[in-house]
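Students often ask why inverse folding is considered easier than folding. One informal answer: many sequences map to the same fold, so there is more than one right answer. In these notes we will look at a single instance of the problem. The structure comes first.
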């Protein structure tokens, strides 16, 4: 409606009129039908055709994979593929890794002291942090590496750092050129994008078994697995930075007669520098996460300390090593973030210190760092961290005592809460999945996939489920799926509650976003440690850890979706008399439906990765099969098959939630106006 004021028309929003309820959509009917079929099938036929395979039993496929493993071990030295491809590649990666390990962690001769002792490492790394970041980052680096020594974990921390450094350098060597090609040539982008999507869908566990089979266990396999896992972020962001350059800027460059190479070197790469550095940051954090998990294939460092502690339920040692991993993640994140800020356009104009003064400070600090390096190479006290300063046992004992106290005094709450959730939610839902005949569940999931994405998604889903059946791990896959879905449901509740609060309030966003960013820097292993002390080694612990691990990404995506809704629409709803609750439920959440589906997609992938890692604390399912395959050679085939089952389960969940996110959403009509 409108009113005439003078010669101008004042437009007023039309009053909100409830829309008549139409017939249910085909999607709703199909999903409801699938639910009815599932419930009836479970009620009538539960416990039949469940394809359960006991933990100690193997299928013919598993035995064939065991035989293949034995064949690879017997023919590794003679097979041309290994002789001329895999073995030289492993040797090259091993040489680079050993270079950094010998430099920072331990040499293979004498007292196994590194080429640069602890004092030189602290000085050199602090100077590098100062050179590419700032003084605060340098002080943080020095403090953290000194603290590693006080924890009694300096050698383990430098092993992890050396492997991360190796993996990041190799990742950049491969990733940046691929990203440049994808940014310059659209055909290359179309080819590698599905590959990157697939790589980022896979949980970290999946990389380990096949790479250990090909490259054996040890640092080389860990680095290769890490490069595969960490490459997608830097490739994507490099390509995005180059493609994001304005078209008129490229046209202006072309009008000056520049060649393609000149345009790339002088225009595109400099303008994309900040985005590329952001990609380096993401790849670095992914590398740290993978290096710690690669302890399962004998990667040295902090990851091995955590794995041994989790397997022996030694909470104190796990917390001590987990704290080191967190601190190392913070240092790597702050250094690369500072480098990203320095790469921003105009960053030089905002510096508080002149360029000349900075060069002088860099020169003086470099001399000091080199002096510390020389001391560490000549003085024993500067080469090996003094044992008398080691307070690690005190930390371990204090944390262990605190954990025992909490388990003794808070058990009424923790055990009651764990058992209530396990018996009230987890067990019934898991039984609903594992006790339903496989053919009914396959039909139900296929119907849901068709409702969400049509025939193509339904066919892909059916193929993935068929592959899981062929692998002989249907029941274990349903156990993993049950934990993943329950955790994802909780993640989405948290995502909606906190995401809406952040999207509607800048103050809440400013408070929560740094906490969420910090949560995303921590490797998956770390989340298991505190909950192990509270709830013991159960699948509930793994699910709670998965919820905390996946919640930050779901909350941030939801918050961004809510804040992106046009303020005009929200103001119109408020002007029509809607309460805040009505604005949220009738306007903001419906308009952010695609964003919520994207948040569910990312939450599922994060939860799946964490639930699988949770096998180390009793989660069971496919993760247990993978870990058992590492430990017992007789179960290697079953572990490898479990890794493949995780791949198919991840593809299934990813494609279904992507299809839901891609579905068009009916837009809320704009306020109508009439002129008088």
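Output (designed amino acids):
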């Amino acid at each position: 409606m409108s009113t005439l004021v003078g010669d101008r028309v004042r437009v007023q929003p039309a009053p909100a009129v409830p829309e008549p309820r139409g017939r249910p959509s085909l999607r709703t009917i199909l999903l409801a039908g699938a639910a009815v079929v599932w419930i009836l099938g479970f009620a009538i036929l539960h416990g039949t055709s469940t394809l359960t395979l006991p933990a100690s039993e193997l299928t013919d496929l598993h035995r064939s994979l065991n035989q293949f493993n034995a064949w690879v071990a017997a023919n590794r030295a003679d097979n041309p593929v290994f002789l001329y491809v895999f073995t030289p590649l492993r040797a090259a990666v091993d040489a680079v890794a050993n270079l950094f390990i010998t430099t920072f962690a331990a040499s293979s001769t004498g007292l196994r002291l590194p080429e640069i002792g602890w004092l030189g490492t602290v000085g050199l790394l602090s100077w590098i942090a100062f050179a590419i970041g700032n003084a605060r980052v340098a002080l943080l680096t020095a403090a953290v590496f000194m603290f590693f020594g006080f924890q009694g974990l300096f050698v383990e921390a430098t092993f992890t750092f050396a492997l991360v450094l190796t993996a990041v350098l190799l990742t950049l060597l491969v990733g940046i050129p691929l990203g440049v090609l994808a940014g310059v040539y659209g055909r290359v982008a179309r080819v590698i994008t599905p590959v990157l999507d697939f790589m980022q869908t896979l949980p970290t566990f999946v990389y380990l078994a096949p790479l250990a089979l090909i490259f054996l266990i040890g640092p080389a396999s860990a680095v290769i697995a890490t490069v595969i896992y960490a490459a997608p972020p830097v490739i994507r962001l490099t390509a995005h930075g180059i493609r994001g350059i304005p078209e008129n800027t490229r046209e202006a460059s072309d009008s000056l007669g520049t060649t393609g190479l000149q345009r790339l070197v002088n225009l595109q790469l400099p303008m994309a520098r900040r985005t590329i550095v952001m990609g380096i940051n993401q790849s670095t954090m992914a590398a740290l996460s993978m290096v710690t998990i690669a302890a399962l294939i004998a990667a040295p460092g902090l990851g091995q300390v955590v794995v041994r502690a989790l397997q022996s339920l030694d909470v104190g040692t796990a917390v001590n090593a987990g704290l080191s991993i967190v601190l190392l993640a913070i240092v790597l994140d702050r250094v690369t973030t500072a480098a990203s800020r320095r790469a921003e356009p105009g960053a030089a104009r905002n510096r508080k210190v002149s360029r000349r003064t900075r060069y002088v400070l860099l020169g003086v600090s470099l001399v000091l760092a080199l002096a510390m390096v020389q001391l560490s190479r000549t003085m024993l006290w500067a080469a090996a961290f003094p044992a008398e300063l080691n307070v690690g046992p005190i930390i371990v004992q204090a944390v262990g005592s605190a954990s025992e106290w909490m388990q003794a005094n808070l058990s009424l709450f923790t055990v009651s809460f764990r058992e209530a959730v396990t018996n009230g939610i987890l067990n019934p839902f898991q039984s609903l999945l594992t006790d339903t005949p496989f053919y009914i569940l396959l039909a139900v999931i296929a119907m849901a996939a068709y409702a969400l994405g049509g025939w193509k998604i339904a066919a892909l889903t059916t193929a993935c489920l068929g592959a899981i059946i062929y692998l002989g791990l249907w029941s274990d896959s349903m156990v993993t799926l049950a934990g993943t879905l329950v955790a994802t449901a909780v993640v989405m509740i948290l995502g909606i509650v906190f995401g809406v609060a952040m999207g509607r309030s800048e103050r809440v966003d400013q408070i929560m976003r740094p906490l969420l960013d910090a949560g995303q820097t921590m490797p998956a292993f770390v989340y298991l440690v505190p909950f192990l002390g509270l709830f013991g080694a159960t699948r509930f612990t793994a699910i709670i850890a998965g919820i905390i691990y996946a919640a930050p990404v779901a909350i941030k995506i939801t918050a961004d979706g809510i804040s992106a809704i046009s303020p005009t629409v929200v103001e119109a709803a408020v002007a029509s008399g809607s309460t805040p609750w009505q604005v949220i439920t009738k306007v903001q959440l419906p308009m952010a439906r695609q964003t919520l589906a994207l948040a569910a997609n990312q939450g599922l992938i994060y939860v799946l990765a964490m639930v699988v890692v949770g096998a180390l604390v009793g989660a069971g399912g496919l993760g247990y099969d993978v870990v058992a395959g590492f430990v017992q050679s007789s179960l290697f085939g079953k572990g490898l098959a479990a890794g493949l089952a995780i791949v198919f389960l991840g593809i299934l969940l990813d494609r279904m939630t992507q299809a839901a996110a891609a579905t068009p959403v009916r837009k809320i009509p704009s306020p109508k106006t009439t002129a008088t």
